[in-house]
Amino acid sequence: MPTQSEPRPRGEWTAKSDAPKRSVFGNYRADDFCSSGRESAPSEQSRLTSAVTSDQATLQSAIDLAVARSFLHRFLAKAYEDPTPESWNWLCAPRTRQSIAAASSACGISPLPDLIFQPGEYQSFHDAYIATFGHAARGGCPKNEIEYGDIKADPLFQPHRLADLAAFYRAFGLEVTQDAGERQDHICLELEFLCVLAAKEAYAVEHQLDADQLAQCRDAQKNFLREHLGRWTPAFTRRLAAATSEPTLRALAEFTRAFIESECARFGVKPGSEELALRPVDEAADRMCDSCGINQLPPGALAMESST
User: Fold this and answer.
1) What is the pTM of this model?
2) In the chain, how long is the greatest CA-to-CA distance?
3) pLDDT tens digits for 186-205?
4) Angle, nearest 10°, between helix axes 85-92 and 122-133?
5) CA within 20 to 30 Å of 276's CA: 11, 154, 289, 307, which one?
């Protein structure tokens, strides 16, 4: 399947191209699959026409669902980035909110409350974000996967996890941009990876690609949820909701948990425990990571080294 963004799927839930164009994966353009807009709903006549055969309706529903899921993954990736006025304006835009509502409905989850992500609340959100997450990976509510889980039984837990994530990204030809500024296990990268896979699924369904290609894409989503994002997100969102009283961050935590749980249910994956503890600070393991150089590598370095 192509790595560059593919032609936009057509249907009840479709995307426009006025979204932020930047992706943490430098060789993927998200403009066709995540947007702040929603095409107008089809007329009743077009609904009747599209429902002439059940096969066509089922096919279109599968495309619409995959595009909706891709949008929500991309939205959450943007929401968890370090906040800027530009990103805040997109998150608050009326058309973004319309897309969230439409995509949430397609995915069978409740949309975000109307009173959050308001244009005038940027500074309060920014201050709460910094207070909650700080500027380091370690903290009370880390946004990095490898901070979650007891690693005493496996001193190579961290490098193995990072290498596995790099392998997932590399398998689909994705290269993390040098200016991404985060490790492979950051929640924004993991969310955007699933955004890409859901977009590829929509493309594969619409263009009737080989069944093996579609199965590979869906299997990758299932495995990634089971081994990575679905494993630690419940614990992350529980900590986030408990760590702040800022309304938007708390609502974002609840929405993220509901969406990731729905994704896990969709692929038959059991979500990780909300009680998953933060890994203990293991100075010996940290020194081992320092000695192997993983902590000093820029994002994507593992993938680039493995491919040479």
Assistant:
1) 0.77
2) 67
3) 999 999 999 999 999 999 99
4) 110
5) 289
